[in-house]
Amino acid sequence: LQITGFKDASVAKDTASFPAYTPALQQAILDETVEFSRYVVFDGEGSLTELFTAPYSLLNGSLANLYGVAGVSGDALNRVDLPEGQARGGIMTHASVLAVRAKASDTDPLHRGLFVFRDLLCRNVSPPENVDATQDQSKLHAPVEDATKLEDFQFFQENSPSCAACHSLFVPFGLAFENFDAFGRFRETQFNKNLQTEGTLTIGSAQDGEFADGAELAAKIASSDMGQACFAQRYATFALGRETKVTPQTLLAADFRKAELSVAELLVAVTLDDVFYYRAVGRGEESP
Question: Residue 38: left (phi > 0), alpha (psi -120 to 50), or beta?
Fold first, then answer.
């Protein structure tokens, strides 16, 4: 999730825009995701589905205030049901994941979308060779100060079609999380305009179709063969300390599905897969 970068100065939040931003709250935001993950795997159902869709999290008083949850106090993290109607649920709507992919005072659908595209779906994208890197910067953003990120992107699509062809693959995934500001707080409007977070998932799976918001998008990814295989790939890569390719057809992905998407059982499956026993030694050869 690369959330440790949340402590870097490059993603620090503007305290004028977010006066609640303190080092203590920053640490609590990071702790929530770590402890939530541990809780899901060892005390909850332990599945990828729960990790991506759980209607609860582990909050303390300051985090609960950030999330708009009443009746929580103290510094200790405890399981708390998340408020309904916020499109919040699962790890993808944690403040840590959202805030680390945002600017000091504004959201960043491009990098939120790239995260979904590359890290949750294991898809790659690179600019085509004919892209004009010197194009007029005025064509990249809507010429009004109160443009929402969706309006900004629509302007970009109309005025920079060569760049927009690639950006359209992943930015809509980032726009699905526009109901959460740069600090991860829920919002329904910006500049007195209702935020539109609807989109369509098209990855060639049974889960393809429309989603209403980021939470629904995360649920679709967790239930798709591609999302499950990508999770297995990221997990195996981390466990083995080297890049590992996993597709929906590979044994590791099949074992993961057979184990009802249990994260703990995925670790066992990694140790039973051939990738655990062999290392590349050059020119396609393998050595135990």
Answer: alpha
- Give pLDDT tens digits for 195-239: 999 999 999 888 999 999 999 999 999 999 999 999 999 999 988
- The pTM is what? 0.90
